[in-house]
Amino acid sequence: MNRRNKDDDRHLPTLADVAARAGVSTATVSRCLNSPAQVQQATRDRVMAAIADLGYSPNFGARALAARRTGTIGAIIPTMENAIFARALQAFQEELHLNGITLLVASSSYRPEIEEEQIRTLVARGADALLLIGHDRAPALYEFLESRGVPLLITWVFDPALSRPSIGFDNRRSMAALAGEVLGQGHREIGIISAEVEGNDRARARVEGVHDALRVQGLDPARAQLIETTYSFESGGAALARMMAHPTRPTAVICGNDVLAVGALQMARKLGLRVPQDISITGFDDIELATVVEPPLTTVHVPHREMGRAAARRLVAMLAGEGHGNSVCLETRLCLRDTLAPPARNS
Amino acid sequence: MNRRNKDDDRHLPTLADVAARAGVSTATVSRCLNSPAQVQQATRDRVMAAIADLGYSPNFGARALAARRTGTIGAIIPTMENAIFARALQAFQEELHLNGITLLVASSSYRPEIEEEQIRTLVARGADALLLIGHDRAPALYEFLESRGVPLLITWVFDPALSRPSIGFDNRRSMAALAGEVLGQGHREIGIISAEVEGNDRARARVEGVHDALRVQGLDPARAQLIETTYSFESGGAALARMMAHPTRPTAVICGNDVLAVGALQMARKLGLRVPQDISITGFDDIELATVVEPPLTTVHVPHREMGRAAARRLVAMLAGEGHGNSVCLETRLCLRDTLAPPARNS
User: Fold this and answer.
1) pLDDT tens per residue across span B160-179
2) B292, B294, B304: which to substitute to probe chain A, counting the most A Cβ within 10 Å?
3) Alpha-helical runs (H) found in A23-111
4) Looking at the complex, does the CB of residue A72 fall below 8 Å from at least one CB of chain B?
């Protein structure tokens, strides 16, 4: 017999130990854990009693055991193409792993209909909880998740006006701080290269942040030239080229993220413009790319890893029945590097 | 009644149409598609006949219908942290999406025990097929997948000696071509910064490729200084610093991928070494980073997107019952940019 007592801490109880104690097959124990509805109540009670007696934990924290069904959490990110979401997600996964939870990730290409399909798939595949980026999506989807009783955490944003739990940061205030610095150095002709704001509350809030900073200086937000595009090096570069062909050239271009900013930086070089002497360019995120490029990028540091870890801890607590708690706003930080300087006198 | 005939191409038949024709509920039709084992044979036959009559396709190619259960494919990659796997995976997902299949991704942090857990989770969650990176893993895992009848495709490698289907490229030959170019420019003191080769057939093959090139020149492979480390900017930089502290400094450092190479490049700058005048540095992969850094990186271009798309098409065909076909070797290409030059005379 494989039966162990709790004091024998050199050997954690196994599935086989549970099966032996409950007098059922290991397959039945698995079914109790993974598809309890398929097991008769009496059998299930016997197996659960054996689990409790032995202190058996199927590879994850015992507290979460009662509440969880599959040990799987799903996350949907807008893209895998660049490192924006990668770092937070890696930390998110590492923290979940410490709690015995497996992360399954889907990437929606910033398309709501694909995200919806992925949400439904993850729920159908038994995800115990979901992590989603931003709040912008059809109300029916939130109702669907609620009707299925799937705990949900939003990240990358913090909006105190919404009751839905989130662990993120204030995109608007963070960008306003950066834009305030740009204006403080004397720039008045501002260009904004943003992701498409429709369906993207992070991008929208960042544009609003630039507008806030303009208003603080008594300037009309409409004077900032805005180009919305997709997040890629090429589109950042193309947007900069369009701006520089405009009759009133900006002296500073504020980009919605580091990928767009690096694309703009490369295009500036191609156009023979020196950064920051001829034009200032700023990013957002502070991914590794920001310090790899020459000159290093002035940007906003987002605590991606901390955000990923905190989100994982919160979801584990939610699965353990601790409720969703308050939304959390993490602090961002201005990184003043070498792509921002006062405008040239004659530009 | 919702019944349609096949000629009405303005309206694709729906689940409700199938249910009405078969005289069952829509829930039963769903069950036939998702968990056929739970439906009685006679009912299943009636539903399948209705599906065939109406030409109904639940959001994906009809050919795959019979063979597939959940419309989900799983992929496990070693890391999400950098862009190495991201680009191929994005293309993989886009192609799967065209076929109505949802991709779920897990990332194993290069740890076999995490990968194993993820493989088992994906199978338990009903993945119809799996995409895995490289061949190196415990035989028991392959047996597990075979016993579950889960089709499997390997990518990132091409090894004609193995019968398991793969769509990849020849890591060894590709790296040998690059190393041959390095030696051809006159370098004799070579450093290699590699990922840990244990459990990583791609990294191992690349190191062997450098050794092959040395042998072709009649040189002893042992004369190349090899440092194995993790894939990150920091570890690439740290490895370069160690090499440069060695009594016989290399004049060229061949890195296992672009991330290591960029880390080495940054460290070279910190150490006051000019690239390529004082030291040559090469990468592997040709991710976007390679052209963003200054000077642009000499590297090996891997057709990541093409590989991702081809892998998706092959898996769709496998799910449609077409067998796994032959392994495919995609061509890589040498990218000679600005980080490789002949060694300085006095170095």
Assistant:
1) 888 899 999 999 999 999 99
2) B292
3) 26-34, 41-54, 62-65, 86-98
4) yes
